[in-house]
Amino acid sequence: MKQVDVPEELVAAAAKARTVAVLTGAGMSAESGLPTFRDAQTGLWSKYDPMTLATPEAWNEDPGLVWAWYQNRRIQLMAVQPNDGHRALAQWGACRDVKIVTQNVDDLHERAGSAEVTHVHGSLLKSHCDTCRTGFDVSVAPPESERVAPPDCGCGGKVRPSIVWFGEMLPEVEFGHAVAHAQNCELMLLVGTSGIVYPAAGLPQLALSRGATVVEINPQETDLSDRADLVWRATAATALPALVEALALS
Ligand code: BV8
Ligand code: ZN
To answer: Which portions of the chain are predicted below pLDDT 70?
Structure first.
């Protein structure tokens, strides 16, 4: 395996920190083969902009298109596995106080074995009624066409994905936990997020304001890069296992 040089400052900060928060974005799941949010478009839905589909307006206007798009993303998720980055975070969390706050709607952190995962944008695998909010466990079927009518709830409402769409409030309890983790951590890692979507992208500022060390792990520059104390231009599945290994040896 190629030797990965972990920045010494990061090893020192991670070894010293009693509490660690890790904010993950779509780049965390990229090496599992899940396309990031902005290049999530495949097949029948490639002509649609995810930013317009992931909105209440799109749901009200064309529920069949939105429902089929999410069904297709569920099928994509079921076909992939957690990567070494997910597994490294689970291994680290088994022996240290590591809180994962994810913007991702996939369940790859959980499937890798992480116990404490806070989803601030909901979950692809959960659904609820858009009227009475009853939860539904919907079977995932490959959408045969561009539009598939969402299931009806008995109350007259339609079953929607339990995902936070643009313009919707984040779930209060989950975001409350995310804020607490950002305020209480001594080290925050930003892994695989472009830092564009608020209020999640405001969490690193909160950690910094409390004196935490903030480290970005991302192959590209992002909106958060210049605020981070340290930037490591590396991918999740190479950087995180190398960090956890360096910690075990330190
Ligand atoms: C809110 C679910 C309060 C959907 C998502 C007008 C009206 C209302 C609100 C707004 C408005 N204008 C702006 C806003 C705020 C808006 C916002 O921030 N917009 C942005 C675009 C400016 N936010 C909201 O609407 C939020 N709600 O504000 O409520 C409110 C309410 C009413 C009225 C006013 C205010 C709700 C935001 C939640 C949206 N839902 N997800 C779905 O998935 O279908 S967000 C969605 O985008 C994803 O879930 C993800 O969280 C986000 C994408 O961000 P990233 O995860 O960072 O992914 P991205 O592809 O951008 O970047 C990938 C990164 O990975 C890159 O940096 C890349 O370099 C890196 N990478 C690639 N490979 C690797 C890697 N890194 C490591 N390793 C690799 N191998
Ligand atoms: Zn209902």
So the answer is: 1, 38-44
